[in-house]
Specification:
The chain has 234 residues and is an alpha/beta fold. It contains six helices and eleven strands. A hairpin with a 2-residue loop joins strand 1 and strand 2. The radius of gyration is 17 Å and the shape is globular.
Length: 234
């Protein structure tokens, strides 16, 4: 969290979970109705807190917001792993209709207001903030967008992302399964665009560190790299 995000963490809103959907394997999506006063920018994240006293362990978690403001609701993407936390299990079993407190939104994982190309690298469920960024781009063809999306199993939001690419040919997506081929694809794009592009990286902490190191080895300057540590993995 950045120092300038601390005041935003103090802002509290009350939402209500309206849908919990099992997408595939251990992937879920959660829709939350939020008040009109809750405003966010695509790419931001927030802290989501449940109040039920039966939840053992942490009752609040940070998640990137997968929806853009024009969607009219907050969308989250979850991955539970083999053993869901008590927090996620509660959402799966009892989430629909439950009140949820939201602190934020915050973060700097946002599109910059110019026409420079954008290269996105989304590791697994790290696609969550990328979905919001792609939705916000819509049919604007002012910039080239290249998404590298490796996932060993299921590609969350793939159908929606394919619709984005059909609507806007300036967006191109590579669905990959092996880390090696994803890194090769990223190296190719880094050589092609160099520091004329912005690079957005989202995923686990270890994945982000690895990709940042790879970009650095290709002489990509840190000021052109933005990352989103997907806290919602566990």
């Amino acid at each position: 969290m950045r120092f300038q995000d601390i005041p935003k963490m103090l802002k509290k809103s009350r939402g209500q979970i309206t849908e919990v959907k099992h997408q595939a394997e251990d992937y879920y999506t959660v829709k939350i109705r939020v008040p009109e006063s809750f405003n966010w920018v695509a790419g931001e994240y927030a802290l989501f807190a449940l109040k039920d006293p039966t939840i053992k362990g942490p009752k609040a978690k940070v998640f990137s917001i997968a929806s853009a403001p024009e969607d009219g609701y907050v969308l989250l993407g979850l991955r539970t792993g083999k053993t869901p936390s008590a927090y996620k299990q509660y959402i799966i079993d009892h989430g629909v209709g439950a009140a949820i407190d939201i602190r934020g939104p915050m973060g700097d994982f946002k599109l910059r207001n110019d026409k420079r190309p954008v290269v996105m690298f989304a590791g697994g469920v790290g696609i969550t903030p990328m979905r919001a960024l792609l939705k916000s781009i819509g049919n604007s063809r002012q910039r080239e967008v290249r998404l590298i999306y490796p996932s060993t199993q299921y590609h969350l939001f793939a159908e929606e992302i394919d619709n984005f690419t059909k609507m806007n040919p300036s967006i191109q997506v590579a669905y990959l399964h092996q880390p090696g081929e994803a890194q090769e694809k990223l190296i190719g794009l880094a050589k092609h665009y160099g520091n004329s592009a912005y690079y957005y990286v989202a995923g686990s902490g270890s994945a982000i560190r690895s990709i940042k190191s790879l970009l650095k080895s290709q002489a990509i300057e840190s000021r052109n790299v933005f990352s989103d540590h997907f806290f919602g993995y566990k």
